Amino acid sequence: MNQQVIFEDEEDKVRFLETLKRYKEKCQFELYGYCLMNNHVHLLLKEGEEPISMIIKRISSSYVYWYNQKYDRYGHLFQGRFKSENVEDRAYFLSVLKYIHQNPLKAGLAQSVFHSPWTSMEEYIQRANLVDIDFPLSQFAAEKKQALHLFKNYMRHLSDDDVLDVETRSRTPDHVLTDYMKELGITSSSYLQQMDKANRDDILRELKKLGGVSIRQLSRVTGVSKSVIERLD
Question: Are residues 36 and 45 in contact, defined by beta-carbon separation less than 8 angstroms?
Answer without folding.
Answer: no
